[in-house]
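In this supplementary section we document a worked example of the pipeline. Step one takes a protein sequence of length 129 as its only input; no multiple sequence alignment statistics are reported here. Step two produces a three-dimensional model, which step three serialises into structure tokens for compact storage. The input and output of this example are shown verbatim.
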Amino acid sequence: MQVTITIPRGWGYPRFTFGQRTKQGIVVGIELIPTDSLIGKEGNAGWQYGLLPHKNSKDIVYLPESDIQQLSAQQAQEEILTEIDAHLNQVAILQAQLETPLDIKTPFGNVQPKITVSKSKDISRRSAA
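The serialised model returned by step three reads:
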């Protein structure tokens, strides 16, 4: 089932979409502040976005559309490729833990770990004191 969002007449369209990467983070929420609302009358009318500043962040930052900067195509591509690289590295580590070679085909080539996985089962811990 495809999710459909209908925007009422007169609202205009938001500049950013769900999941879009911006300089301030990834868009995870969109809200329209009407001009006739209390917040809108204070000069904050328009589209407001919920942004996740970092992938591992639990806090959402809310900003008006005017405060958000779009990434260039090159910046967005670099972020996405960095994230893909991290996931491919994780796949390679899991494959090494299986100790079974898997035939993993991606458009980016062979999956090779960037770090080595130690097969030693002895883990020593040092106290922080």
